UniProtKB/TrEMBL annotation:
Domain Oxidoreductase molybdopterin-binding residues, every copy: 295-427
GO BP: respiratory electron transport chain
Membrane association type: Multi-pass membrane protein
TM helices/strands, residue ranges: 21-45, 65-89, 110-132, 144-163
The protein, known as: Twin-arginine translocation signal domain-containing protein
GO terms under cellular component: plasma membrane
Keyword Membrane assigned: yes
Species in which this protein is naturally found: Cryobacterium cheniae
InterPro entries hit by this protein: Cyt_b561_bac/Ni-Hgenase, Di-haem_cyt_TM, Mopterin_OxRdtase_euk, OxRdtase_Mopterin-bd_dom, OxRdtase_Mopterin-bd_sf, TAT_signal_bac_arc
Pfam families (UniProt xref): Ni_hydr_CYTB, Oxidored_molyb
Length: 429
């Protein structure tokens, strides 16, 4: 068995399968994980804030950037994780497979880390297409797995810290390779030393795998060629990983970042495609509001402190109108900048005597759905860019975008920009 394991490791040997390369790719993967975790936390608490939380409303495109970055970093994890697995794959054939109980725990934690990582990035990618072929709630599981992964990442770094410290520096890694008795490489400097010293062993080179007494041009050529070949192989591997990351990111990031829109080939949403030039996630038919939203007797009710007033669409249109340019940015990573026109929510709040520090609850005509109701903190309620929108891009709001009225506010996820509004009420503490 030990011989079979040895032969397997030898057959899988490659210049890129070394601790230094594992550290290099691991650093990039770690950064991607941390970026995903940080931006994911921000998105989570925007949707489920703790009572004391307040969020910035500027820049108005803040959520567009954070969630777009979240999706981009998550997509980049695919080639990075596959590259890391390629590098460490021979370690599966250690002999003996388990050396001690602590070693068993180490290998089990790594297996759990890899498995959880693959599940997390896969369900995250599938979510961008709004396809859920699993029996569990995506949002809750994705959030919980994020914490699990961060804990496993910290554990993994702690276990591998001696190796990470040793091979963090490229110079240290090169010195290790040049002096390792198990290495089959030698630097051009080694060859030059042999040429100068002839049949005597050069000082400071004990243990190097090079024919010190056979310093012929052929040996020099062979040694240099081996070294250069391995260097080229490593550069080629890193170049391949870099191209793969650039491809998967560049061909999808256009759904968020306008300069890359022309290269948006694989993302599920395309800028400018949809009613009034804006994509749609949840349609009026899916929400089952096609009748209630177009009813002649529709009214928007505002309530605060026992005061309640209702407004028809015509009455809202007769009020002072404000025009703003704000993005609609969704948790799936896509966003679209648009021009909205309607009544400032702060002005409507004043009409019912709402407290300046009051939060509001928004209710949609939808009868079911996780976001048929959404809460809005006072920082959004009183922001001059927050509107009860009646128009989109110079036209009457399309039914698919929330007709007869919807909410639009700076820095909020699209799922909280409630469509088909029916009631807005102050929340009592």
């Amino acid at each position: 068995m030990r011989r079979m394991m040895y032969e397997a490791r030898r057959a899988l040997a490659s210049p890129v399968r070394n601790p230094r390369m594992a550290v290099v790719i691991g650093r990039l993967l770690g950064v991607a994980f941390i970026v995903c975790f940080g931006t994911g936390l921000y998105s989570h608490f925007l949707q489920d804030p703790l009572p004391w939380m307040r969020f910035p409303t500027r820049p108005a495109s803040l959520y567009q950037v954070t969630q777009g970055t979240h999706i981009v970093a998550g997509i980049a994890c695919f080639p990075l994780l596959l590259a890391k697995l390629y590098i460490v794959f021979p370690d599966l054939f250690q002999s003996p497979p388990v050396k001690s109980f602590l070693h068993l725990l180490e290998r089990a934690s790594i297996a759990l880390f890899v498995g959880a990582s693959l599940v997390q990035i896969t369900i995250g990618l599938v979510n961008t297409y709004r396809w859920y072929p699993w029996p569990f709630p995506f949002r809750e599981v994705h959030y919980a797995l994020g914490w699990v992964l961060v804990g496993l990442l910290v554990l993994h770094i702690g276990i591998k810290l001696p190796i990470i410290s040793r091979f963090w520096s490229g110079r240290a890694a090169a010195e290790h390779e040049a002096t390792d008795a198990g290495s089959e490489t030698a630097t051009p400097a080694d060859v030059e030393a042999v040429r100068l010293w002839g049949s005597r062993r050069p000082p400071g080179v004990t243990g190097r795998l090079i024919a010190w007494i056979d310093a012929t041009p052929a040996v020099q050529l062979r040694t240099v060629t081996q070294t250069e070949t391995k260097s080229l192989s490593r550069r080629g591997f890193l170049t391949t990983v870099g191209i793969a990351c650039a491809a998967v990111v560049g061909l999808t990031a256009g759904q968020t970042f306008a300069p890359l829109d022309a290269a948006n080939v694989f993302a599920p949403r395309k800028k400018g495609v949809g009613p009034q030039g804006v994509p749609v996630n949840r349609t009026a038919e899916q929400a089952k509001v096609t009748v209630s939203a177009t009813a002649a007797g529709w009214l928007l009710t505002l309530a605060a402190g026992g005061v309640e007033r209702s407004f028809s669409r015509a009455e809202l249109e007769a009020m002072p109108q404000t025009e703003v340019e704000l993005p609609i940015a969704c948790v799936e990573g896509w966003s679209q900048l648009a021009v909205w026109r309607g009544v400032r929510l702060a002005e409507l709040a004043d009409l019912v005597g709402a407290d300046p520090d009051a939060a509001f609850r928004l209710t949609s005509l939808e009868e079911r759905g996780s976001f048929r109701q959404a809460e809005m903190g006072p920082e959004y309620v009183r922001d001059p860019l927050t509107l009860v929108a009646l128009e989109l891009n110079g036209e009457t709001l399309d039914l698919q975008h929330g007709y007869p009225a919807r909410m639009i506010a700076p820095g909020r996820p699209g799922v909280l920009q409630t469509k088909w509004l029916s009631r807005i009420e102050a929340i009592t503490a």
